[in-house]
Amino acid sequence: MTHHHLAASVLNCHWGYFDATRAPVLTIKSGDRVTIDTVSGAPGFYPKSGFHVPPELLEIHKAHPGYQLGPHILTGPVAVDGAKSGQVLEVRIIDIKLRQDWGYNLIRPLAGTLPDDFPEPRLLNIALDLERNVGKLPWGLELQLAPFYGILAVAPPKSWGRITSIVPRAHGGNLDNKELIPGATLYLPIFNDGALFSCGDGHGVQGDGEVCVTAIETALQGTFELIVRDDLCFTYPRAETPTHFITMGMDPDLDQCAVMALRDMIRLIRERTNLTAEDAYTLCSLAADLRVTQTVNGSKGIHVMLAKFLLSA
After folding, report:
1. Which conformational region is residue 295 in: left (phi greater than 0), alpha (psi within -120 to 50 degrees), or beta?
2. Which of 2, 182, 264, 276 has the highest count of CB atoms within 10 angstroms of its CB?
3. How many angstroms separate the CA atoms of 124 and 180, rounded?
């Protein structure tokens, strides 16, 4: 296993979009580890003084003074040798670290879960204490941090063209799933040779829902082990933690999100057990948790969590 490092830079980052025609900036072998640096924020979103602003963020702003399709600065893509359309990319999340001592939170008029309630924009810069792993909110509250990436993705199908980074879809993207911390594994269906993995949208901490549009947005460094799986075949992201299986649904209608995620959990249960569909549906009703992933990305999200031990009997 080789361990690679991919820095955030003008050449290594793409701002606000996914596109299967973007050339990989790094190629690795299946099973290799890669440490990826990311940055976050538009010009003017960072503190004026007293905090560390990664110099590559300023260089990216100078080269690309604004975004067109989405606000997320993404590092990648990373190609994985031998990955083919129809296979699955296993993304083992090994480690996630903060790269700076501040983050920001944004309220945007006509956006978020309450788009009409807050007519004035608000930008908060939030100090991050890296030693104590807390964020210091302006009114004095300290929040325990739990860093994770809002965006983990492979390239979408070529037929989709260039698409926004805002809306999560079958290729992953802006999942905003706070369960995807170190120790978790994400499974993404592959649509292109090489898979073409990118990540970004670093979060210091987020509640399920991400209701005002952002979490604590910040720069992160993530270490991933990328494995091509030719023994798996599914068309939508799944995940697991050390204790739970996770299925997902994304759609503008939150009810449809629940339908998608629940149907996939029933499929997962049946793949791993001899239970009938009726028994699997009953088990979900008795023991699975449907959680609102986010309600702010155009397509909302529901993820279903089922404890692994329930399928070992």
Report:
1. alpha
2. 264
3. 25
With 0-12 / 13-18 / 19 or more C-beta atoms within 10 angstroms meaning exposed / middle / buried, residue 234 is middle
Secondary structure (3-state) at 253: coil
Instruction: Dig out the tokens for 55 from the structure.
Output: 């110099």
185 & 252 share domain: no
Tokens 């599914």 belong to residue: 234
Model pTM above 0.85: yes
Q: Does residue 173 sit in the same domain as residue 75?
A: yes
Range(s) of the domain holding residue 44 = 3-229
What are the angstrom distances between the C-alpha of 116 and each of 64, 110, 113, 119? 31, 6, 9, 7
261-299 pLDDT, tens digit each: 999 999 999 999 999 999 999 999 999 999 999 999 999
Residues 305, 214 share a domain = no
Tell me how many degrees the CA angle 200-236-13 measures, rounded to the nearest 5.
20
Note whether 174 and 263 are same-domain residues. Answer: no
The Cβ of residue 52 has, within 10 Å, a number of other Cβ atoms equal to 12
